[in-house]
Each structure stands twice: as C-alpha cells, then as structure tokens.
C-alpha cells in the first residue's frame, strides 16, 4: 500500500527560473492578466526513439494544486533587491486557478503533439513553466526508455536498479515510478515503493559475500535470513564455482524449509555465464531456480543477450536507464500559443510552433494498431480518438486521478497498439502526424498579427 502522505519534500514556489519571476513583475506593472494558453510538447524525435511515452501528469497536477508562496520565500525574494514590495505582496495571494487539458499518462506521443495544455491568467500560466517542464520532461524521458526495455524483453522480470546513480533523490523516486508505469515489474528504490505502491525487489551486494568467511556461509546466512526471497549473488569470486556451492547448499536448506529462488549474475560475459550456470543448476536439481542478470544493462544489451539465447529470466536495469544515457534530454518546450484571445506563434529558426489550442486525434486500423495522428485546433472534429482531455478546471482536478496500476495497464495497451516498426529498437519510418488546414490557416493569421 502507498504511504498515507507523500514523503518527497515539496520544493515550493521558488522551484522555478528567475526569469519567470522577473517577467511576472513586468506583467504586474502593465496589468497583463488576460487568459493565456501554453502547451508542453516535443519538437522532434531523434533516431534513437520511435515514440515518446507521456508521464508525470500526476505530479504536475499536485504541484499546481499546492502552488503558493510562503512568507519566508517572499522575504528572500525581497532581499534580492530586484522586486517591488507591492509585487511581492501580490505574489502572496497567487494560486493556480486555471484549466489543464492533457494526454493520459502512458500514452505514446510524437513531435508537435501537446501532452499538456495550461489555460490560465498569464502570470499563473507563465510562473509554472519551469517546474512543469521539470516534472513532465523527466518522467516522460525515463518512461520512454523503460518502455523500450519492456518491449524488447516480453515475459522477463524487469526491476529498476537505478537509484544510486540517479541524479538525486527525487529523480530516483520518479524514475522508479516512470519505469513501473512503462512496464517494469518492481523497483529496488524503497521510497518509491512506499510512496507509489510499486512492488519492492532486491537481492544482495558483493559486500555481503565479502563480509563472510566464505561464499557458502554467506549464501546460507542470507537464505535463512530471507527465506521468502532467497536470490543469491554468485559472481563475487568465481561464478560457476559459486553456482556449484549453491547446488551443494540446496538440500540442507530444503530440510529447513528454505527454497533457493534464484541466482543473480552481475559481471562478465552474462550470456556465457548464464548458459553454464543454468546447466549447473539443472544438473543439481534446481531447475526452478531463476537466473537474474544486472550490470550496465539497457535495451540494446538485453536484446543481444536474448538473441544469444541466454537463459536469463529477469533483468535489473539501473544506471543506463535512470540517466537515459543514450538520450539524456528530450527536445521539448512549453510555449505560449494564445493570449487575450489572439493566436501566438514562435517563429525562431528551428523552433517554429503551431499556434492555438490543439487536439490530437489518433486513428486505429482494423487490428487495433494506431496508424496516424491528426493535429487540429481544439474545437475541430476529426476521425479517431481525441487524446487531450480535461484534467483540471478552476485549479482543481475534474476527477480523482487513476491509480498507478491503472496507468500502467493503460500504458501496456497503448504500447501494444503501436505499429511493430515503432516497437523495435531500430529507427523506423516516421509516424504520420498530419496538421489540419485550419491549423495552418491560424498560423498564417498569427504571422500577420505579429507582423510576419
């Protein structure tokens, strides 16, 4: 069960970029309070990603509902010498009162498709930019890579092992959440398991073996201490010799009612070791004992192991996943699309945006596979399923958020619906995303309004 209350510290309203606050003071001085529309989206997909997976909405909504400046924060801002006192007094009463429309977490998305839209008075919509990008970018980044791992290893047990090299405590916890959402089975990050109800999983470290006089003693001690989850790490010294020790130990443990659940490999040629260890375990009557592998794994390494026929039942995936090492950042943005009822469009070189409030319509073929998206204005109708749906109105959720298990099931169904080429690791032909004629016409209007 999740903890009754969140354990992660709320970083507060100062978790933002300074320019958000300097702009807010400018808006305050000019009385610019009209409704603004901002959208969060990815500009493009690199060759190493055929799709992105939306994640982080739950934390984004939590942030918006809790947004407020504490007096100590305002006093600190006052000490910078940048802000007017009447502006800081105004910030004391600032709350998020706007609307949020978003894609459900676990939904694949593509370039230019908004996964979140904020409609609120300009100062509110602007202030939240940095933290919303921070939350949505990171979990979508990790979920997108974790989904690739899950797709390449169907039927294998997958455990997030990445906490120790994640970029801080919040990153470790949110990475575990994103991995579970995308199809992992468990995490070794205890706080994430406690906070989100993720199954907890872990084995032992080499230090446990080294601290004992011998390997067999360490294995027996650990198995008797944790009989319900006796998975033994066998590569501290000599992997195959250790596997033989496990076989020799098994009958004595069985007499005590303790069953060895499996062994873990963490170094060397994992495929070669797995074949040899499997043979040793099977010959010793431990055919039901699983082999679990870890050690600098990602989707590419796991694919190579499976293609080599390695008899590995599960994988612990850590550093390369929780840092998204092959793609450490998404090319994403949170941009103003409408202000005071008029379309707004950024036309910077290489960063041009489509203006206005948008909807994404996804079409499916007779086999239930998605076959193309259409980017339209929010009030247009098109063939398919509308993906951007109400999440908040007037600063409050429109309904209780789905549980993480429900989000995970949605992600599973969504990933199954992807065309087979997108589900693979090789670069695939671009998924078709059409832009409606009305959207193009609005872009021309926005250009005229801005002097283009």
Automatic annotation (TrEMBL):
Residue ranges annotated for the Nicotinate phosphoribosyltransferase C-terminal domain, each copy included: 386-441
Domain of life (superkingdom): Bacteria
Posttranslational modification: Transiently phosphorylated on a His residue during the reaction cycle. Phosphorylation strongly increases the affinity for substrates and increases the rate of nicotinate D-ribonucleotide production. Dephosphorylation regenerates the low-affinity form of the enzyme, leading to product release.
UniProt keyword annotations, A-Z: Glycosyltransferase, Ligase, Phosphoprotein, Pyridine nucleotide biosynthesis, Transferase
Gene Ontology MF, one: glycosyltransferase activity
Gene3D superfamilies, alphabetized: Aldolase class I, nicotinate phosphoribosyltransferase
Class of the enzyme per the UniProt entry, highest EC level: ligase
Segments crossing the lipid bilayer: none
Described purpose of this protein according to its UniProt entry: Catalyzes the first step in the biosynthesis of NAD from nicotinic acid, the ATP-dependent synthesis of beta-nicotinate D-ribonucleotide from nicotinate and 5-phospho-D-ribose 1-phosphate.
EC number: 6.3.4.21
Pfam families in alphabetical order: NAPRTase, NAPRTase_C, NAPRTase_N
InterPro entries for this protein: Aldolase_TIM (IPR013785), N/Namide_PRibTrfase (IPR041525), NAPRTase_C (IPR041619), NAPRTase_N (IPR040727), Nic_PRibTrfase-Fam (IPR007229), Nic_PRibTrfase_pncB (IPR006405), Nicotinate_pribotase-like_C (IPR036068)
Official protein name in the record: Nicotinate phosphoribosyltransferase
Pathway per the UniProt entry: Cofactor biosynthesis; NAD(+) biosynthesis; nicotinate D-ribonucleotide from nicotinate: step 1/1
Domain Nicotinate phosphoribosyltransferase N-terminal: from-to ranges: 14-136
Family: Belongs to the NAPRTase family.
Residue span, Nicotinate/nicotinamide phosphoribosyltransferase domain: 157-337
UniProt catalytic activity: 5-phospho-alpha-D-ribose 1-diphosphate + nicotinate + ATP + H2O = nicotinate beta-D-ribonucleotide + ADP + phosphate + diphosphate
